[in-house]
């Protein structure tokens, strides 16, 4: 399949109105620190494999969360909750470096309430979807890539809108805000062996979000 890929450059690019790609936002040292942070948070809030609503089909990605609220999916549907679905414990705090990316890139005056952490192995993918389970869309979504390169697909606010793809490398950060807050997006595939950041390969994605309307 032909992929309409943006060239990799280290400058911030507006891929669509409100859809910003901050290439190489995290340098190698920061990426290593974030991996250590994710390892630590996963010791408190372990990886688990969510299931699709209704069908109960397992996701190809493993997930955990950090922050006040975590996004979960099971046969009953998608929702945010303050406790890990398997352990019943509160989620671990959001790593400081992830908070830094939010502060630098979100242009939003409130901290994130949720951070979903996705773990992709070489065969994992994420279908085209909108991030629309939040009760309020005024905060952008800030999404951090670590490890193997992902082919990230994005389109418009309607599933039928045309899509384009871009490679997300380790250290890149994507912001879905403004007119692109509800843009469809997904991960078509992971380029196995493209990064040596994670022992054993694979990719980690941290997705920071606001969930409820902030108090005035
Ligand atoms: O892994 C990514 O880059 C995107 C993840 C995503 O869209 C999500 O978890 O909602
Ligand atoms: Mn998403």
TrEMBL record:
Its cofactor is Fe(2+). The keyword Transport does not apply. Fe cation binds at residues 129, 131, 185. Substrate binds at residues 71, 78-80, 133, 159. PROSITE patterns: FE2OG_OXY. One of its GO terms (biological process) is oxidative RNA demethylation. InterPro entries: Alkb, AlkB-like, AlkB-like_sf, Oxoglu/Fe-dep_dioxygenase_dom. 2-oxoglutarate binds at residues 118-120, 203-209. It comes from the Bacteria. Residues 111-216 form the Fe2OG dioxygenase domain. One of its GO terms (cellular component) is cytoplasm. Transmembrane segments: none annotated. Binds 1 Fe(2+) ion per subunit. Keywords: Dioxygenase, Iron, Metal-binding, Oxidoreductase. GO terms for molecular function: broad specificity oxidative DNA demethylase activity; ferrous iron binding; oxidative RNA demethylase activity. It is an enzyme of class 1 (oxidoreductase). Pfam families: 2OG-FeII_Oxy_2. Its EC number is 1.14.11.33. This is Alpha-ketoglutarate-dependent dioxygenase AlkB homolog. The lineage of its organism: Bacteria, Pseudomonadati, Pseudomonadota, Alphaproteobacteria, Hyphomicrobiales. The gene is alkB.
């Amino acid at each position: 399949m032909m992929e309409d890929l943006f060239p990799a450059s280290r400058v911030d690019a507006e891929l669509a109105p409100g859809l910003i790609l901050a290439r190489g936002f995290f340098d190698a040292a920061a990426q290593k620190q974030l991996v250590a942070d994710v390892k630590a948070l996963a010791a408190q809030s372990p990886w688990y494999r969510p299931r699709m609503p209704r069908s109960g089909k397992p996701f190809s990605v493993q997930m955990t969360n950090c922050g006040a609220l975590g996004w979960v999916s099971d046969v009953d549907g998608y929702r945010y909750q303050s406790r890990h679905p398997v352990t019943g414990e509160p989620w671990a705090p959001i790593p400081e470096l992830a908070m830094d990316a939010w502060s630098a890139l979100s242009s939003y005056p409130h901290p994130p309430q949720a951070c979903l952490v996705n773990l992709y192995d070489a065969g994992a993918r994420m279908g085209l979807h909108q991030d629309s389970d939040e009760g309020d869309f005024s905060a952008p979504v800030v999404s951090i890539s670590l490890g193997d390169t992902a082919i990230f697909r994005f389109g418009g606010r309607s599933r039928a809108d045309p899509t384009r793809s871009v490679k997300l490398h380790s250290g890149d950060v994507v912001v879905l805000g403004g007119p692109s807050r509800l843009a469809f997006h997904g991960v078509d595939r992971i380029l196995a062996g493209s990064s040596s950041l994670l022992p054993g390969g694979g990719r980690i994605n941290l997705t920071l979000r606001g969930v409820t309307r902030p108090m005035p």
